[in-house]
Design goal:
The protein is α/β, with parallel strands linked by helices and 253 residues long. It has one domain: Rossmann fold. It is built from eight helices and seven strands, in the order E-H-E-H-E-H-E-H-E-H-E-H-H-H-E. A seven-stranded parallel sheet has the order 3-2-1-4-5-6-7, sandwiched between helices. Helix 1 links the parallel strand 1 and strand 2. Helix 6 crosses helix 7. The chain is globular. It starts with 8 loop residues before the first strand and ends in a 10-residue tail after the last strand. 44% of the residues are buried. The site of NADP nicotinamide-adenine-dinucleotide phosphate has 29 residues, from helix 1, strand 2 and helix 6.
């Protein structure tokens, strides 16, 4: 199947590791030009070199998405330098934690506001595309009880509602908006590797809840994102896609 991504311009936040890195690698493999950010300069340089080897245009920059002004300026400049924006993937998260009110502000500013600012700043470009596609990375923690009442879980739920309602609002402009809930995803340097090292019991009990007994990989999530980002998923907007290897148990009609 031709996904129709060749020559498209994709902007992805948080793309030097894990799921974001797998997303930009697959989008580049499909021939899309890439704009991405993260904070660590060395990892940005290494990611840029790997992506450029695919023969696509790549613009990587060090930006903290929590700094609203710097982040919006980067989005605008990247879309201009790429020659437009057809795809926006909001991937950065502040992650979990429930030690204090600080987590609520962090998850609001990073998970929610960086997504909203990204959509608002890039919307004119996405409309101009004629095949604009936004993919918002949520989590299965938003749709089923997980561990503890964390800001992360609640803010990821907010993203699903925002995604659905934005899709209704911009559908007339041929911009599609979908959210994606990955289940637990394991990779070196990721949160689950850390949890395995610090709380083996919790890690093991999580794996036991997955019918085929393994967590997902960043590549498996990225394949779903790449499809949602592409014109090949033209019938899909306002969907919340769950890619969790059977981890969640709820029946959603
Ligand atoms: N891993 C899982 O099991 C899982 C499950 C469900 C959903 N998700 C969701 O999937 C997404 C990706 O998760 P992941 O586990 O791959 O993430 P990760 O390991 O935390 O990687 C995050 C990426 O974002 C960058 N980043 C982090 N904070 C940033 C900031 N403030 N500004 C700019 N860049 C920033 C990181 O680079 P720097 O550190 O250099 O900035 C890195 O490239 C998140 O939305 C997460 O909630 C993950």
């Amino acid at each position: 199947m031709d996904l129709g991504l060749r020559g498209k311009k994709a902007i992805v936040t948080g793309a030097t590791r894990g799921i974001g890195r797998a997303i930009v690698e697959q989008l580049a493999a499909e021939g899309a030009d890439i704009g991405f950010c993260a904070r660590n300069e060395d990892e940005i340089t290494a990611t840029t070199a790997t992506l450029k080897a695919r023969g696509v245009n790549v613009i990587g920059a060090s930006v903290n998405v929590r700094d609203g002004d710097a982040y919006k300026a980067w989005l605008e400049k990247t879309a201009t330098d790429l020659g437009g924006c057809d795809v926006f993937v909001a991937n950065v998260s502040a992650g979990g934690g429930m030690d204090s009110e600080k987590n609520w502000w962090k998850n609001f500013e990073i998970d929610v506001l960086h997504t909203v600012r990204g959509c608002e700043t890039l919307m004119a470009h996405l409309k101009k595309s004629g095949q604009g596609s936004v993919v918002i990375i949520s989590s299965t923690n938003a749709i089923e009880t997980f561990a503890a009442p964390m800001a992360y879980n609640a803010m990821k739920a907010a993203l699903i509602t925002y995604s659905k309602q934005l899709s209704q609002f911009v559908g007339k402009d041929n911009v599609r908006v979908n959210s994606l809930c990955p289940g637990p995803i394991y990779f070196e340097g990721g949160a689950w590797e850390m949890i395995k090292g610090t709380n083996q019991k919790f890690y093991d009990s999580t794996v036991r809840q997955i019918p085929c007994g393994r967590m997902g990989t960043p590549d498996e999530v990225a394949r779903v994102v790449t499809f949602l980002a592409s014109p090949a998923s033209s019938l899909m907007t306002g969907a919340n896609v769950v890619a969790d290897n059977g981890y969640t148990k709820g029946v959603r009609y």
